[in-house]
Structure formats: structure tokens, C-alpha cells
Design goal:
It contains 14 helices and 13 strands. With 423 residues, it is of the alpha/beta class. The strands form two sheets. Strands 1, 2, 3, 4, 5, 6, 11, 12 and 13 form a nine-stranded mixed beta sheet that branches. A four-stranded antiparallel beta sheet has the order 8-9-7-10, with helices on one face. Strand 3, helix 4 and strand 4 form a beta-alpha-beta unit. The structure holds glyoxylic acid (GLV) and manganese (II) ion (MN) (2 copies).
């Protein structure tokens, strides 16, 4: 069997360039936020590309574009659990052209490569472009994969957005019935295996000069909002030792968050992404301030400890400064290890193709983290140039994407022939 990925990578290059034209030009870089007009239009393109590759396509109740390549067994009436692959095509604001997109277009190219090689799988192969993986104005990520995995909740639908409507209302406006989205679950043990191809979004593969990353675990994420209330005073007349400055307290909290990430003995990072101050004048000591921050790690014990330490440090800082504070944990997502048996298959497929691979953790969140509710799950990473991602400079060489697609296709073929996968 020879799996050839379109030697000139014509499909991948043209499809990546084509999708990149569906962009909101009012922002820098590439911006295709979930539920936006460019996003809606781009998904027709994805659906058409799936059809051209021979898949039956529908939009499911969770707003996912789902392509199905029938396998020999189901064509003969037998019931085998399907293989599944995919990712997302929404971007962060001012983002890039590869995050998620490589996993969707790469999956379609993997299907094409099977066809070129004359391989019909026994099992159905399902390719999914999941609805909205990136966090949105409602503060929720992975809407489509949560819906399919049965972990989208009524509480999520009630989340308020910055534009004054709830997530449920926004989904309805987009054409996704929120109540049906809650009932879209495939259930546990419903897929034979889920494999997601993705760019690394960090520098490890490039630094090691390695083409393929076999993901060990997807980081857990804990997000917090801390608000500080001090006292508004005249910025010229109030001595430095007589202030209750909410913003300097918030700044100290930002540094406490950073310190936690810097001190992590395992994979762990900590980021404050937003700070707000009120009333926001040069000449008034700030009365109110808020920070929005997150902690991430593939190590659950560190994450739990970091949550406690950050909360304690922020409380101590506020007390020292005479500022009152309130800390709210907004979301938490546990770290998710990938399935060891699938890692072995990806590593073996890479070695068979003469490619070097290494085990890497994923600091980024992925739809795959939810797919674990449906069966065994693993991920393949390809290098990000300079480790850059979530910015316009995000780039992965076509040659590296092609190698990732070859590994994806070869892994799917191996898994098709594997009867049981150890959990
Ligand atoms: C998604 O890309 C995330 O990791 O936040
Ligand atoms: Mn992504
Ligand atoms: Mn992303």
C-alpha cells in the first residue's frame, strides 16, 4: 500500500489559501470568529471540499460540519464503530491560517490519499469541522465538540455575551437550535478512535528538529476573574501611603499569576490576558480593577496547588494594600491524557514512514479533549515556525503539514485493522 499525499501539495496549499480569504478584514491578520459571517460562508467551502473527497456531509445538531466516508463493513450492513478525525476552522481575533484548519483540511486530504491509493477502510471514517473551538464572547470554547460529546450544558447556553444576548440566543440566531445541541451526544464508547492533526503552536518540535509530535496529554485550564475594590482619591493630593489603589493591587495579582507559572516544576503556565480599571482617569486613584487570568498544566496536582496558591497570594496582597478582593473561578477543564495505545500507533506509523517523532504535551486546548468522552483519543502535532501561534505570523511549512497528513492517514489505516484498542 502506498499512501501518496498529493505530491505538489496542491490541494492543501490551495485549500489553505482559499479558506484564508474568508476573513473579517476589520481586524489584522486572519480573523474568522465563530458565528460570524465569514465563518458561516467558509463552512460551505469545507462541506464542499468534503463532498469532492467522496464524503456524505451534513450539519449536525451541534452545528458541526460532519463528513462520512462509508467503509466496506457498513456498506455491507455490518455495525463497526467509526474512526473519527477533524478539528476546527474558527480563529482567534487577529489570528493565523493554520490553527485547527490544518486538522480539517489535512483530514480531507487524508481521505483523498486513501482514494488515490485505492484503499477502502472497513470502518466508516468521520471527518468533523467542530463548531467554534476558540473561546468566544461567551467565554466558552469547543462548543461543537462539547455538544457531540454530551458535555454542553444548559448553564453554558445561559452564559451572557458582551453583545447583550446569551449563548443560547446567539446559537439560535446562527441557525443552531440550542435545545437540540444539548441532545447531540454520541455517547460513551461510540467511536473506535479519534485522532486530531494540529499545529504544535509552541517551539518544541522546531527546537528538536523533529517533524512529528505525539501528544501525551492536553493541558487542563482553570480561568479566573479577580476584582478589587479600593478607594477613589485625588491623584495629586493623596500621599502614597494613604492610598487604597485597586489597580496596583491588580498589578500585583498579575505578577503573582506570572510567578506561579515561572515556578512550575512540571509543564505549567499562567497568563493574565486582560486587566480593567475604573474610573480610568490619569488623575484619580483607581477605585475598581479586574483581572482575567488562566492557569494551564498537563499535571492535575500542580494545577490544583497553583489554584490555591494564586488565590492565597492575591488575598494577601489585597489585605496588605487595604483593598477588598473577590476571586471567581469561571471555568475549569481537567488535563486529559491521550490514549497510550493510540500514541504507540502514531509513533509506529511515523517510524514506518521514516519520520522522526517525539512525545510532547499540549499546552493548548483542543476539541480532542472532549472527544475522550466518546472513545480512545490521540493527537499528532506538526511544527510551528518560531513556535508562533494565535497571531498573524503563525506558520507551518507545507512540507511539514504533508508529513502530518501522511502520518494521520497511515495511523487511520492501522487503526482500521485493529480490532480493540486498550483504553
Ligand atoms: C485554544 O486555542 C486555546 O488553547 O485556548
Ligand atoms: Mn486549535
Ligand atoms: Mn487556537
Amino acid at each position: 500500500m502506498t499512501l501518496t499525499i498529493d505530491p505538489d501539495a496542491l490541494f492543501l496549499e490551495s485549500a489553505l489559501a482559499d479558506l484564508a480569504t474568508y476573513t473579517d478584514d476589520s481586524f489584522d491578520g486572519w480573523t474568522r470568529e465563530v458565528l460570524s459571517d465569514p465563518y458561516r460562508a467558509s463552512r460551505d467551502v469545507v462541506a464542499n471540499r468534503m463532498r469532492q473527497a467522496g464524503m456524505e456531509v451534513h450539519i449536525d445538531a451541534g452545528g458541526n460540519v460532519v463528513g462520512r466516508l462509508p467503509g466496506r463493513a457498513s456498506a455491507a450492513g455490518a455495525k463497526l464503530k467509526p474512526l473519527m478525525t477533524g478539528s476546527h476552522t474558527d480563529t482567534v481575533r487577529n489570528g493565523g491560517r493554520f490553527d485547527g484548519i490544518v486538522g480539517v483540511l489535512g483530514a480531507i486530504e487524508a481521505v483523498e490519499s486513501l482514494r488515490r491509493a485505492g484503499i477502502q477502510l472497513e470502518r466508516d471514517l468521520v471527518v468533523v469541522d467542530f463548531l467554534g473551538e476558540e473561546p468566544n464572547e461567551f467565554g466558552i470554547s469547543c462548543m461543537g465538540s462539547r455538544s457531540m460529546a454530551g458535555v454542553l450544558t444548559p448553564g453554558h447556553l445561559d452564559l451572557p455575551g458582551t453583545s447583550g444576548i446569551t449563548l443560547g440566543q446567539a446559537l439560535a440566531r446562527y441557525g443552531v437550535d440550542p435545545n437540540r445541541a444539548l441532545q447531540n451526544s454520541w455517547g460513551p464508547d461510540s467511536v473506535h478512535a479519534y485522532i486530531e492533526l494540529h499545529i504544535e503552536q509552541g517551539p518544541m518540535l522546531e527546537r528538536a528538529g523533529t517533524q512529528i509530535g505525539v501528544v501525551t496529554a492536553i493541558a487542563g485550564i482553570d480561568r479566573l476573574m479577580a476584582s478589587f475594590t479600593g478607594r477613589a482619591d485625588h491623584a495629586g493630593a493623596t500621599p502614597m501611603d494613604a492610598r487604597q489603589d485597586a489597580l496596583t493591587c491588580a498589578a500585583a495579582a498579575v505578577l503573582a499569576v506570572e510567578r506561579e507559572g515561572c515556578g512550575a516544576p512540571v509543564h505549567g503556565v499562567a497568563t493574565t490576558g486582560r486587566i480593567e480599571a475604573f474610573p480610568g482617569s490619569f488623575n484619580v486613584v483607581p477605585q475598581e480593577a479586574r483581572i482575567y487570568a488562566e492557569l494551564r498544566s498537563t499535571d492535575a496536582a500542580w494545577l490544583n496547588g497553583a489554584k490555591r496558591r494564586v488565590a492565597e497570594e492575591i488575598a494577601a496582597e489585597a489585605e496588605r494594600r487595604g483593598v477588598s478582593q473577590m476571586l471567581e473561578w469561571l471555568t475549569d477543564q481537567d488535563p486529559v491524557p491521550t490514549t497510550p495505545a493510540l500514541r504507540d500507533h502514531i509513533a509506529a506509523a511515523s517510524s514506518d514512514l521514516g519520520l522522526e517523532w517525539m512525545a510532547v504535551p499540549s499546552g493548548a486546548g483542543h476539541d480532542a479533549a472532549h472527544m475522550v468522552h466518546m472513545g480512545p483519543m490521540a493527537m499528532i502535532f506538526v511544527p510551528s515556525v518560531g513556535g508562533r501561534s494565535h497571531c498573524p505570523e503563525e506558520f507551518t511549512d507545507t512540507g511539514d503539514i504533508v508529513e502530518g497528513v501522511r502520518v494521520l492517514a497511515a495511523t487511520l489505516v492501522r487503526l482500521d485493522r485493529t480490532e480493540t484498542i486498550a483504553p
